[in-house]
Hints:
heterodimer; A: mainly beta; 17-stranded mixed sheet; 4 helices; 17 strands; globular; B: alpha/beta; Rossmann fold; six-stranded mixed sheet; four-stranded antiparallel sheet; binds adenosine-5'-triphosphate; binds magnesium ion
Amino acid sequence: MADVNNSTGSTTAGSIEVGTSGAGEKLAGPGTGRASVQQPIDARVTVKPSYDVNDFPVPTGREEDWRFTPLHRLAGLHDGTAAANASGVDKVELGLPDGVTAEQVGRDDDRLGKAGKPVDRVAAQAYSSFEQALVVTVPKETVLTEPVKIDVHGEGGTRFAHVVIDVKPFAEAVVVINHTGTGTRAANVELLVGDGAKLTFVSVQDWDRDAVHIAQQTALVGRDASLKSVVVTFGGDVVRIHPRVTYAAPGGEADLFGLYFADAGQHLEHRLVIDHDTPHCRSNVVYKGALQGKDAHAVWVGDVLIRAAAEGTDTYEHNRNLVLTDGARVDSIPNLEIETGEIVGAGHASATGRFDDEQLFYLQARGIPAEEARRLVVRGFFAELVQQIGVAEIQDHLLEKIEAELEANV
Amino acid sequence: MATLEIRDLHVSVEAENGPREILRGVDLTVKQGETHAIMGPNGSGKSTLAYSLAGHPKYTVTSGSVLLDGENVLDMTVDERARAGVFLAMQYPVEVPGVSVSNFLRTAATAVRGEAPKLRLWVKEVKEAMAALHMDPAFAERNVNEGFSGGEKKRHEILQLELLKPKIAILDETDSGLDVDALRQVSEGINRVASSGEVGTLLVTHYTRILKYIKPDYVHVFSAGRIVESGGAELADKLENEGYASYVKGGASE
Ligand SMILES: Nc1ncnc2c1ncn2[C@@H]1O[C@H](COP(=O)(O)OP(=O)(O)OP(=O)(O)O)[C@@H](O)[C@H]1O
Ligand SMILES: [Mg+2]
């Protein structure tokens, strides 16, 4: 893969844009993409987090946190019009292993809002407009051997949702939320990982091509607890997922893995914020995406903040994109702010490369047909990340999905 | 017996100000079991010939023909040519991140042989071929050519030659970038394959030093896009002593 733009370092930010190659340039090789580097004005959101949608002005697209998102394709989630007509329908099916409880509760339930408040207008809209919240509880010291399953199937219209996953101290759980179907959805998901608990949270966006989905996934990681967040986005017209991590006490660790595959015209956006405000915590982010087709657009923004109090922090974030055809666009912005020097390590890397004609030629020159060559490269690109998920059932499903994307589109 | 016949081959590339002709009528016949050295100055079109035979999309054949046992090679896609038995060891092998050498080799062998090699035999075959080329077994788990040194890339090309057993092997400057030990080991690999008598070898090189290890049956001097003189191994000695000066004084491909 020819790297169009790579950056590694500690505090830089870069935006990488891969445009169509120049006219008459039949042989794609290194350097056929355009690269631009911009410094975000402020990686942190300027409006204070709030439950109240009215605390946030309607975004115009010029704001740092909205500048990549096609607002006109959000079906009014950002300007109140969607909320005025929230008559959408979805079917939610729960798979609950023994010992796990699920309740529908009102907004005054005191288990809501513990992980963190909405940080943007759409998340606040979701909070202001949901009818009932789903609270899933894994009791103290309960070690699950099977995943908790939340299957959300959208049947059209606008839905607002709130989900709390409460993993009590020393419990261990895998929770998989799988989104299929269609519609417009804004949601908040709260992940409470109790002291010494272990949560693997998998969010799969396998929507129909026309769906719109914006979600804030806010995690609070307890003392010596560990969170593994896996965000997988294949389907939808506009999908914007915003995982956030804060630490309640020292010793917490968070692995945030993401995998996306953007086809022609799709906008898939992943924004992460990890707020290290507590000493001796660890975070590790790996997001990988493939893009193919005209106007496929992937946005990845990774903000990691190491505050003055967070000595002993160890963090690394890494985004890689593989552009399979001309006409796709990637914006990848790692951003690290460090307020203390007393850390174990901090770094980031971002690379966007193309599957180019030279690689294709090399593989074909060894007898491998073009389609198989492309598959070989894409599978290889994702394989290592998929292995790190550590849940066999999910891994197999993901590999199948990647195969299906390749069958359908390459 | 496999035969590659190149007749009056003309090839252009797309340059800034329109197509530019690089090959200007190449005639050459390579038979199984023979080794031909193609020697010529920089820019004379040696790589162009090699890549055109393999079907690289950058090169456009404007006239002439290439037949492998009577089959029109120019009608075949790149992968069809490889499966028909044409192998190109590249001057600059390409990095393919994310794809391990072992996965790559097995996929290629499966494609070329028409069926997946039996796993246990295959593992042994690869191990032995790597050992013969003095390659660390750890290379099998690395990504194709990623971070390989120049010499490691060339060994990896010859490893593929040994495993894919083509009818016609085109080796483009396999000697460049090799130190003396590597040159000897890589040459031994080429000779091992050639000694089967089943491959016709087209050894493309700028320098004569590899000819200390590989004895060509024929030597062709390439200049300005065509073969300007052909002879036996003794022609290489002449080039060793006199260089290419007498062939290029009329100007190169300009
Ligand atoms: N895209 C291009 N536009 C213009 N000229 C080109 C292009 N590609 C190749 N050439 C020219 O074609 C000629 C032949 O190149 P080629 O690589 O075949 O030479 P070579 O004999 O292999 O040289 P070397 O010994 O340096 O490997 C050179 O003059 C080169 O500059
Ligand atoms: Mg050359």
